């Protein structure tokens, strides 16, 4: 491994056991905070968090950032502030490579928007390395998908989508105002994949179209002029959930004016259209790919670390990699065996959160020489937002048909609780309550949607 220049940026000269966590997302930020607050505070270990971005934004809110219902600037957490408050070190940069023999993680240079170097490449020594780098979009090699379909992995992607959505609406509105000609529909958005991400995005988009028409694009009739299509290869939406939840979600989406197309596999994505497996061509101004995730490509370069077919790191029940017990992985980037099925745990915030809690405890046990039990996932159920149509919640358990289904206000309340629970975990009670209160108080002074 050659890197220049060599800078042990996060080397404090201490001989404490150093735990380096790569990725401060839904799981990594929890883990860094918890470890710093426990083993770090007791001076039993030194905690370093690395992320390619300077701020954290909770990924399950990305569809709300994409539709403009949530401004990421009001909802991010500064890693440096969190590090100062809890007592860990934060290093900005992207993990490139790991020298497992020397126990060194190579962190890439940080560049500005013009490509000029702000921070050079650095190398960080570790005693334990934890990979929580999340997932990337899996385009399944569908021709044109990576080129023409938008992914929704981070705040930048959400912002790209939001700008394109506004631009498409602005152009259509202008056409309607000047020519007055109605070619129906004027804006066509296709969301590929009707898992939770696709369903939540499609539902939120109908609300965004209504609000944009009310505030900004008055010539646009959102029901007639904006077509939002949700395309699913399987026979029903939310295929991982019980059929009752699928039926309720599909009906709610249709009521919201989403065109739900099931049993249609997308065979090709073009700049302005899609082609399905049965040969139909569908117009598309904007195509979003929400049909699956995979581990980040760079994981392939970590020699000796076993990956599954979806490029996720295969871990033991103690979340250690098979090739190296000093390297741990969890969250979306890890393939953790599921006790309830023959496969792996799903890529969900709930899994990442429970694994972070587990690892926080496991490191404390390991450092004090105590035995470490294996990780057990307890499925607390799944809640899916249906935008203006509320939400739907299915309790956990290995037999979906026995699950309890909750809809209406109770499910919407549960959905809102998820983010608050996350805030509580990373910010503590006082900061979480103050944050929620500040958002609530600010509501009246801002439009319900980001307008520009
Ligand atoms: C729109 C949307 C809605 C969702 N809704 C839900 C939901 O309602 N419920 C639910 O349970 N799950 C939901 N999910 C899934 C959930 O967001 C993920 O399962 C969860 O965020 C995984 O957590 P993680 O810590 O593994 O990864 P992430 O939260 O993705 O964090 C990964 C972190 O690693 C950093 N990183 C990546 N590569 C590198 C690198 N090379 N070097 C340094 N840093 C790096 C990233 O910047 C990021 O901060 C949703 C996902 C999306 C996209």
TrEMBL record:
<keyword id="KW-0274">FAD</keyword>
<feature type="domain" description="FAD/NAD(P)-binding">
    <location>
        <begin position="18"/>
        <end position="356"/>
    </location>
</feature>
<dbReference type="InterPro" id="IPR051169">
    <property type="entry name" value="NADH-Q_oxidoreductase"/>
</dbReference>
<dbReference type="InterPro" id="IPR036188">
    <property type="entry name" value="FAD/NAD-bd_sf"/>
</dbReference>
<dbReference type="InterPro" id="IPR023753">
    <property type="entry name" value="FAD/NAD-binding_dom"/>
</dbReference>
<keyword id="KW-0285">Flavoprotein</keyword>
<keyword id="KW-0560">Oxidoreductase</keyword>
<comment type="similarity">
    <text>Belongs to the NADH dehydrogenase family.</text>
</comment>
<protein>
    <submittedName>
        <fullName>FAD-dependent oxidoreductase</fullName>
    </submittedName>
</protein>
<dbReference type="Pfam" id="PF07992">
    <property type="entry name" value="Pyr_redox_2"/>
</dbReference>
